[in-house]
Design goal:
The protein has about 150 residues and is mainly beta. It is built from 1 helix and 8 strands, in the order ββββββββα. A 7-stranded mixed barrel has the order 1-2-3-5-6-7-8. A hairpin with a 5-residue loop joins strand 6 and strand 7. The longest helix is centred in the C-terminal third of the chain and has 22 residues.
């Protein structure tokens, strides 16, 4: 990327997680509007598929083709729209009150995009499932098909 899209700070009030079809995993979905806005039409999406942390208070998962966590960053608009798989990095989850979790991410995409940040996730199984089915079913299916290993 060049110009204004080379370095972006994205803010969102739309950070959700939901149980995946295989109950051992979660879908994490963070939708971002254009840079500089905290809400509005989704322009970028961060999707992560992570193991369910169970009763743990804190967990860390490596992200990548051989790690237990996988994901992608998606640009919904513009000339560079499309999906970039996350090639490496880590995602940390820390339990908050109730069904809320703090997620921290430090990762790099296959095309060199660096992703760093944190969000407080709220649980919404149906909203996450519906959004994925409507907009990213193929992207999520590709992650599953290209998975070379999952923890036993």
């Amino acid at each position: 990327m060049t110009g204004l899209q080379r370095d972006m700070t994205l803010t969102s009030t739309d950070a959700l997680y939901g149980r995946a079809e295989d109950a051992d995993y979660w879908h994490i979905l963070i939708r971002y509007p254009l840079p500089g806005a905290a809400s509005g039409t989704t322009s970028y999406v961060l999707y992560l598929n992570v193991p369910d942390p169970g009763r743990a208070e804190r967990v860390a998962y490596p992200i990548g083709p051989r790690g237990p966590a996988r994901g992608f960053f998606y640009q919904a608009r513009g000339t560079a729209r499309g999906r970039e798989l996350i090639a490496s990095g880590f995602v940390w989850l820390r339990r908050r009150a109730g069904d809320r979790w703090l997620v921290t991410l430090s990762a790099e995409g296959k095309l060199g995009t660096r992703l760093k940040g944190l969000a407080v996730l709220s649980r919404s199984d149906l909203a996450v499932r519906d959004y994925i089915e409507q907009r990213h079913a193929g992207d999520v299916a590709d992650l599953r098909e290209t998975a070379t290993s999952r923890p036993p």
